[in-house]
Amino acid sequence: MTHRHQEGGRETLNPLLIKRQNRTDEDIENIVELHGELHKAFDEMEAETETERLQNLAIVVKEIEFRLQEAWGFDRNTDWHSWWFQVPHCTCPVLDNWDYVGTRLSVTTGGCPIHSPDPK
Question: What is the pTM of this model?
Answer without folding.
Answer: 0.85
